[in-house]
Amino acid sequence: MAVTFSDPEIAALLAERKPLPFNWSAQLQLKPKRGHDESELVTIGVGQNEFDVIIRRSKLNPLAFSVILGVRIPQSNRIFRLRRYNGKSHEHTNKIEGQTFYDFHIHMATERYQMLGNREPREDSYAEVTARYGDVTAALDCLIADAAFEIEGPQGTMFLLAPEV
After folding, report:
1. What is the Cα–Cα distance from 63 to 159, expressed in whole angstroms?
2. Rounded CA Rg of the chain
3. Which of 108, 140, 119 is nearest to 29 (CA)?
4. Are 17 and 46 contacting, i.e. CB atoms less than 8 angstroms apart?
5. What phi and psi values does residue 26 have, to the nearest 5 degrees?
6. Is residue 55 within 8 Å of residue 30, measured between CB atoms?
7. Cβ atoms of 87 and 63 closer than 8 Å
8. What's the pTM value of the predicted model, to 2 decimals?
9. Nearest Cα residue to 110 out of 140, 78, 145, 80
10. Pairwise CA distance, residues 56 & 95, whole Å
11. Strand, helix or coil at 97?
């Protein structure tokens, strides 16, 4: 697989200001979808890049979740995953480093993982353990803080704290 974004380009995409629409939290209400709950929000950054925030949470295991930030690649239907905040529900191995762990972790797109080829690992296969969150709501808060999102008004992420049904 050819490198889609270099490490400096990935850093620039993360740093690009991303204004959230006024009703962004309502748009991220989780909805049932084949064994899990999911939501998606699309926003346009100040550099005119189109970003997707995708949230997935297992109906069976509250620690099985992903909060994903992707950027849509122009003239394609592909979303390049910049960051993925995963729950503590599975073991992860960084293939290049040979490091394995079972914990909350943040996946990060890197140039070197893109160079490994079309199969696993993907662009965001490298991950680091984190103690910054312990649930899907806090993971979304970390993504918002880490990726230059701009929130106007008093909206928060309380919607995700609704009891699971």
Report:
1. 17
2. 16
3. 140
4. yes
5. -65, -35
6. yes
7. yes
8. 0.89
9. 80
10. 24
11. coil
Torsion of CA 111, 67, 128, 125, to 10 degrees: -40
Query: Which two tokens mark 138?
Result: 């806090």
Pull the structure tokens for residue 20.
């959230």
| Eight-state DSSP code of residue 14 | H
Task: For the chain, give the number of residues.
Answer: 165
Two structure tokens written together for 94: 């960084």
pLDDT digits (tens, 9 = 90+) for 64-109: 999 999 999 988 889 999 999 999 999 999 999 999 999 999 999 9
pLDDT over 70 for what percent of the chain? Answer: 88
3-state secondary structure of 19: strand
Q: What is the per-residue DSSP string for 56-84?
A: EEESS-TT-EEEEEEEEPTTSS-EEEEEE
Q: Where are the alpha helices (DSSP H) in 105-150?
A: 111-114, 136-146
The residue to which tokens 């003239």 are assigned: 75
For 143-164, write each residue's pLDDT tens digit: 999 999 998 755 554 444 333 4
Cα distance between residue 53 and residue 72, in whole Å = 11
